[in-house]
Structure formats: structure tokens, C-alpha cells
Amino acid sequence: MTVTGHEISRARIAEMAAREEESYRRRTPRSAELFERARGALPLGVASSFQAYDPYPLFMTDARGSRIWDSDGNEYVDFDMAFGVLAAGHSHPLLAEALQHRIANGTCYTFPVEDGITLAEEIKRRFGAALVRFSNSGTEATMDAIRVARGYTGREKVIKMEGGYHGHHDDVLVSIQPPRDAMGPVEQPNTVPASAGIPRSRLAETIVAPFNEPDMLAGILDAHAGEVAAILVEPVQFNIGVVPPEPGYLERLRELADEHGIVLIFDEVKTGVVLAYGGAYEHYGVQPDLFCLAKSIGGGIPIGAFGGRREVMAAIETLEGTPAFSADAAGSGIERTTIPGGATRVAHLGTFNGNPLSMAAGVVTLTKILTRDAYPRLYAMADRLTAGCQAVLDEYGLPGYAINVGPKGCVMFTPGRVTNYRDFIGLDAELWSAAFFYLANRGILLPPGPDDQWTLSVQHTDADVDRHIEVFRAFAAELTVRSATG
Ligand SMILES: Cc1ncc(COP(=O)(O)O)c(C=O)c1O
Questions:
Q1: DSSP 3-state helix, strand, coil percentages of the chain (rounded to 5)?
Q2: Which atom, in ligand 1's list, is nearest to the CA of 239?
Q3: Alpha-carbon gap, residue 276 to 236, rounded angstroms
Q4: For residue 3, what pLDDT is reported?
Q5: By three-state DSSP, how is residue 358 classified?
Q6: How far apart are CA 271 and CA 267, in angstroms?
Q7: Which pLDDT band, with edges at 50, 70 and 90, does 342 fall under?
Q8: Which H helix or E strand runs over 386?
Q9: C-alpha angle 14/18/23, rounded to 5°?
Q10: Ligand 1: which of 242, 266, 269 to mutate, most ligand atoms within 8 Å of CB?
Q11: Which of 131, 292, 402, 481 is the S-S candidate for 313 at Cβ 3.0 to 4.6 Å?
Q12: Lining residues, ligand 1, CB within 6 Å
């Protein structure tokens, strides 16, 4: 492959990937040692399978601001930011101070606290919502929102997009990155389990649609008329790099959901309070019926939330007056899940829901750190990083493009634009791997997989961004050095 006088050979990519992995091993012996020990106590040596990668993950000890340190004392500028949790940065001083007070005064009561009201009111304001409930993770938020949608509509099926990730419960742990030979036709993708242990009966309830293809979705909806409770979508697909919605796509989802009486759920676990003050809802100007939040709203403390329209959320209080109970529904010939004599409201429960630690963290993060005036600087830094990486790609003719939406972005190592999962499969994993280890070995830490992206925080600086670009430039220069020197 030759572009503007530079040549990138497969052999050179493989050679650099191997060399950088070797250097990673040399720099991080303590992590290797801890990993060996961890494998004796934890499957895959980690607490969440997403933390595992070859040859072994870094074990971390400290983090502050935009920096993180591994157990060998190596310092990194953190661009992973805990898979996008940390738009507030590590241990923001305001958060650290508030949490110290909280830790000294009780972290779990299972009685409600005023901070829970304050946080719900803040989320209502940002997302144009009527009612909000709290959970402890994004997984719980999408699981609960789906149950509310099912209870509200009295229908069972859920549509999710191929390549979308919504957590690890059975309804959504399907077609996340399905193998090519299993994924089926694009206009009607197969529902491919992403885990063993998911019962067939669950798989039958989840329908998969291609992202950014509203006409195909319309066909799928016609084929399942009256059966679908919810369309669940990441407004930006942030679990296959960065894949924004095509212009008009989210608006069309809104229309289709309305036409079919379906609850539209935006999974804003990655986008909420990060893309904008009011998340993707504000950024794209499309309002879902329900939205899910987690990650960034807690500034680094576990939390989840979901909320939305009053009449849908009110299913947690009573189903009376919802479509599930309407006369229309009864006469429609559609089989409803509401069992006579059964529950007349949707259960939403959890010991740690609304605990004082998470609520205090959320209040400080949203009202004192990720305030409206924080965003312009985040956008400017993100545009600077994208422009810098794009200039490097152009200069050295690397196959790929740099992209960001708000303060989240990445280099997609593929020459063509990715609009959905099937384009993403063409990504050059070896080139990505060479870049990941090269950058990590020089103090720039990216998420350990091409499916994730960098997230900037209010504690990053232009100098952090420039360092990232500088190291990426050095990587490109070394990768292409052979042909440059003949
Ligand atoms: C869009 C999206 N939804 C849901 C989840 C699940 O969140 P959690 O890991 O907090 O359960 C994730 C996690 O990465 C996510 O990216």
C-alpha cells in the first residue's frame, strides 16, 4: 500500500506490533506477576471480562486528574478514562472532598436521601424528562427501562441494533460483534448470542436491526406489527469505535416508534452528560420516551439511572391507563404479557439504588463539575486531537480516519467510513494493536480494544492532547520509515 511516498507493509505492522508488545512486557513485570496471581482467583484474571486483553492487563494503583499509574510506577496520560466514565477526570478535588464527608457519615441507609431528589431534578432538567429512577450500573438501567417498556405496552419483543452494547443482561447480550458467518442478511440480521448461557426463549424476544438503516427497520417492524415493546439504541454507536447516526436517522426512529406505539429508549450510558450537557438528546435534538444513564453521571462512583416520559415511567406506580390495560389492546388480538390477577405495576428494585454515596457523587459531578460552561473547552480539545491525528494519517498515508463526537473520539483504522457494524468488521486490528502498544509504551493510554474510544475530561489539557498527537506522529513515522528511507 503506497500513499504520498510512504509504504506500509503488513510485515512492518506485524514487526512493530511484536516489538511493542515485547517492550510492554519489559516495562510492566509487576502487572504480569499480579496477572498470574489473579488467574488463580478470578476467571481470566479479571473482575469483568472486558478488562482482559493479551498479553495481560495493566494493574493500576493510582490516578489523579488526567494521569494514571500502573503497579510498576509507569505514568500514563489516561485517554481511556475507565471506558468513558470519567468526563470529570480522576478524583476531581470537589468530588474527593464531598465524598470524604459522605464516607465519614454513612454510605448506605436504604432510606431515601435529599441528594437523590436533587440529582433526579438535575437529570430531569438536562434530559427534558418527567421522572427518573436510580440503579447501580448501565446494565441495570437498560434492563429496568426494558421492563418498564414491556409493562407499559404489554408487549414482549425488543429491538436492538447490530453492534450495539447495552450491558450484560440476557435481552441485550446479543449481536454485539457477531461473527461474519453467523450474522445473517443485513436487512434482517440474526439474533446471535454474545455469551453461552442465554436461554433460547430469551433470544426469541430480541430482534436485531442494522444501525443507520431506517428503511430496513421499517420492514422489520412491519413483520412484527404489535409485538415490539421497545427500540433500544445507542444514539452514537460507541461500542464499535465511533459511529454517529446519519442525519435524520434518530428523527426517523422517533417517527417509526410513534407509528407503531413502541417505546423508544436511548441508551445514553456513554453519551449522557458527555456529548453535551443534555447528552445525545440535546446534541441531536431528538427526544426518546426513555433514556438510560450510568458511567459519567457519578464521576467515578458506581451509579445508573433511567427516566423519561411521565406516562411511561408511571408504569412503576400503576399500569392502569397504559396501553397494556387499554380496551384497544384487549380487542386487538395481540397476546399481552399482562397476566390477569398478576402484577399491576412494574417492579423496580435494588438495595443500593439511590445510596447516599452515589447520590452525593452525582450531585457534585453534575452541579459543580460537568456544568454548562465545561463543554466548550472539552469540544475544543477533542477537535484539536481529532485534527492532529487526521493530519498524521494524511501525512503518512495510514489507512484510517480520525473522528470524534463531542469529547469522545478515536482513529478508525479503515479507509472507508463506518456507518454500522458490518463496515466496522473491516477494521485493521493488527494496525490498531501496534498503535495501542506503541502509545502505551510512551505514556499515552488508550482503551485496550478498537471497539472503544478516547474520552477527554475537564482535567485534560491541551498539552496532554498535543503529547498524544506527537506520539501518534512518531508511531506513523516509524511505521513508514522503511520506504521513506528507501
Ligand atoms: C452504551 C452502553 N450501555 C450500557 C452499558 C453497560 O453499563 P455497565 O457496564 O455500567 O453495566 C455500557 C457499558 O459499557 C455501554 O457502553
A1: 45, 15, 40
A2: 16
A3: 13
A4: 46
A5: helix
A6: 8
A7: confident
A8: helix 375-396
A9: 145
A10: 269
A11: 131
A12: 83, 137-139, 142, 165-167, 234, 239, 267, 269-270, 294
Determine the Cα–Cα distance for residues 58 and 417; give it in Å rounded to an integer. 32
Annotated catalytic residue, options 295, 401, 423, 452: 295
DSSP character string of 239-270: SSS-BPPPTTHHHHHHHHHHHHT-EEEEE-TT
- The amino acid at 85: V
- Given the residues 24, 76, 152, 165, select the one marked as catalytic: 165
For 23-51, the pLDDT digits (tens) are 999 999 999 999 999 999 999 999 999 99
Ligand 1 center–CA 337 separation, angstroms? 27
Query: Which residue bears the cell 414482549?
Result: 156
Q: Is residue 379 among the annotated active site residues?
A: no
Q: At a CB cut-off of 8 Å and minimum separation 6, what does 219 contact?
A: 187, 188
> What is the strand order of the sheet 444-445 is part of?
60-64, 67-70, 75-78, 444-445
Closest alpha carbon to 427 in 229, 154, 177 = 177
C-alpha grid cell, residue 449: 480494544
pTM of the model: 0.96
What cell was used for 398?
Answer: 495510514
Nearest CA to ligand 1 atom 16: 270
Cα separation of 184 and 192, whole Å? 9
Instruction: Locate the ligand 1 atom nearest the alpha carbon of residue 302 and give its number.
Output: 10
Is 408 a catalytic site residue? no
